[in-house]
Design goal:
The chain folds into 3 domains: 143 residues, no CATH class; 31 residues, no CATH class; 89 residues, 2-Layer Sandwich (Arylsulfatase, C-terminal domain). The strands form 3 sheets. Strands 5-6-7-8 form a 4-stranded antiparallel β-sheet, covered by helices on one side. Strands 1-4 form a two-stranded antiparallel ribbon. A two-stranded antiparallel ribbon has the order 2-3. By secondary structure, it is α+β, with helices and mostly antiparallel strands. It starts with 22 loop residues before the first helix and ends with a helix. The chain is flat and about 60 Å long. Strand 2 and strand 3 form a beta hairpin. The protein contains 9 helices and 8 strands.
Length: 296
């Protein structure tokens, strides 16, 4: 599929992450293998062994790397991206083909009107943004997930909603659609009113995010900003209105001081609402992670 046809590149594919003003991106680069050309991680991971390019350089047909100048970093990143994105498209096409089989069966059995179909994922995925692949970070491409739902009895075809939802909203939504009440201990809010084109006045203004692993970090995402905390480093701020590709961390900019203060209050509010204890937050650095593992 699409053999030999170049796929459009993301604007930040060749971003110089080593020189980034974001410690989140720099630490991710240093401590993982999830870059097209560069690799960090544990001592067993060598620079020229675990990055995408080197792991797939000798792949055989039909997945061989395209012809390129092996002395040029930009060329190596280019062919690594094309190699990855072509495989990704083939994978998604397989998903789509099989989803069609399910939808066709529902039509055939006359079950369409009474069946709720949800298409979603557990996370997003880097497709070359910042030179990365994989997921894990609070930044847009790895944090945002697809969410499509079809229920002809309730949802008008083509409806689009831009309110801030999170994955724990899915269970309360399905329960309400099934005529059941969500348990009091269940977090998240039903999205049924949103599916009907109505936005509640008390709907959330931010999404809480936390990741335990490499890298331990947490924060919030609002309609405009992404605000995060990474162990051992100052808080970071990305303004997605002025910088949709999230190239620059602008937390230190003087004019953003009121924004940071406001988002810090919102983050603390979210922590209270989620009822997560301070010691449960992903706040340890890489060094602390190793100490914790050793004690276990």
């Amino acid at each position: 599929m699409l053999a030999g046809i170049p796929i459009a590149q993301p604007p930040t594919l060749y971003e110089d992450v080593y020189s980034s003003d974001s410690n989140l991106k720099k630490e991710f680069l240093k401590r993982t293998k999830f870059h097209m050309l560069l690799s960090g991680g544990n001592p067993k991971q060598t620079k020229e062994g675990n990055a995408y390019y080197f792991r797939h350089l000798k792949d055989k047909a039909p997945n061989e790397m395209w012809k390129h100048d092996p002395k040029s970093d930009k060329e190596r990143i280019r062919v690594a991206y094309q190699h990855m994105i072509h495989k990704y498209i083939r994978c998604l096409t397989g998903n789509d083909d099989n989803l069609k089989r399910v939808l066709d069966y529902l039509d055939q059995e006359k079950l369409t009107e009474d069946t709720i179909v949800v298409y979603t994922s557990d996370q997003g995925y880097w497709l070359g943004q910042h030179g990365f692949y994989d997921k894990r970070l609070i930044l847009e491409t790895s944090m945002c997930i697809p969410f499509l739902i079809r229920y002809p009895r309730l949802i008008k075809p083509g409806t689009v909603n831009k309110d801030l939802c999170i994955n724990v909203d899915l269970a309360p939504t399905l329960l309400e659609l099934a005529g059941l009440t969500s348990p009091g201990a269940m977090q998240g809010h039903s999205m049924v009113s949103l599916l009907q084109g109505k936005s509640p006045t008390d709907w959330r203004h931010s999404q809480f995010y936390a990741y335990w692993g490499t890298l331990n970090h947490y924060g919030i995402r609002t309609e405009r900003y992404t605000y995060l905390k990474l162990a051992g480093h100052p808080a970071e701020l990305f303004d997605r209105e002025t910088d949709p590709d999230q190239v620059h961390n602008v937390a230190a900019n003087t004019e953003n001081k009121p924004v940071v203060e406001r988002l810090e209050k919102e983050l603390q509010k979210q922590i209270r609402e989620v009822e997560i204890r301070r010691y449960e937050l992903p706040t340890s650095s890489g060094k602390q992670e190793k100490i914790h593992k050793a004690r276990r």
